[in-house]
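During the reporting period, we have paired protein sequences with backbone structure tokens. One record among many follows, to show the layout:
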Amino acid sequence: MEIEIKRIYEEAEPGDGKRILVDRLWPRGISKEKAGIDVWCKEIAPSRELRTRYHKGGMDFIEFAREYTRELDRNPCAPEFLEHVRSWGRVTFLFSSKNPEENNAVVLREWCLLD
């Protein structure tokens, strides 16, 4: 299983494999055609409450990652999501955050690889 991460605003490339949007909200300013996604897995994204707390500065990235990991561990959709990711081989998690190092796709990739 190979998991890459990339901003949804970057061009799709042949080597991306299955392109999976892992944000709960559709990214601003991009059409569904331009996004080039194969699957939108909003049910695997951080909860609205967690996302809001993090983006409003109510927690740092380490705390966000810890809380999001807890959500993933309890998410009833997570086992099926992980099974699909494994079966697809090479995937790219797409996210809209401006920060490429500290976002939900980074945490999700680590969670998938550790399981």
Observations:
- The two ends are 12 Å apart (CA to CA).
- The chain has one domain: 2-114.
- The chain has five helices and four strands.
- The chain has a mean pLDDT of 95.
